[in-house]
User: Fold Chromosome partitioning protein ParA from Albimonas donghaensis.
Amino acid sequence: LSNARDGATRRILAIVNQKGGVGKTTTAINLAAALVESGKRVLIVDLDPQGNASTGLGIPHSRRVRNSYDLLVKEATASSLVQPTTVENLSVIPAKGDLSSADVELVSDAGRARRLQKSLREPELLAAWDYIVIDCPPSLSLLTVNAMAAADAVLVPLQCEFFAMEGLSQLLTTVKEIRRGLNPALTVEGVILTMYDRRNNLSELVANDVRANLGDVVYRTVIPRNVRLSEAPSYAVPATVYDPTSTGSLAYRALARELLERGTRSAA
Ligand code: ADP
Ligand code: MG
Assistant:
């Protein structure tokens, strides 16, 4: 049996990059699904008002009446917002458009950056899940700050394109600021190279450049550009379910293994 119930492996991961379209949501869904295949119980918190993770996991709007907006603004109990997906042991706290007004509504609340941190400390929730994966919006707004305040670690997907690292120093500065105040224990778990195209020299150049600059924090596993990864959301399942042997699915499984190994290493 897996060590899924071993509290020591429990982690909250925030998938962060203020750029859109770099593979945050694809990583949240498929990394989560691959962790589930490894025997973990995984909850995705959709913190993007676009709700792409919720849509990709097949949560209809009728099951998003209560959503992550209620978590942040209404202080609803997190476990009361959890929606199951078609994948056993993979659930989601969904999001929809009303989340986009959360920063304005919380503007006069001194504790506004700790709303998620507080709500994810619910013992019942922590007992139920091995991993909590937070899918962030494409900004370093209050929503992302809430995610970083609540997380143990940040995962940063970087698209293998020119200017991949643009904005990264701002992101890392934000992480340092969060560490100084809201969450001293926050770490950068890793950088994930996404949409790697081996027929395109640029991908390799960018990947080498990123590794040269960032070193070991970059995962060995690279996520290839794979059409199955982009098709799966329209079937409302992770790619690992839609096409289990696609290159994209294999890559996310390898990434999950690497993440689990790193977890053991840093715990040792
Ligand atoms: P983000 O959440 O950072 O905005 P997404 O995960 O939504 O990024 O990805 C942006 C678009 O690229 C989506 O249409 C998604 O399906 C597609 N996509 C993401 N990763 C890959 C990949 N490795 N190969 C092919 N398409 C991808
Ligand atoms: Mg997204």
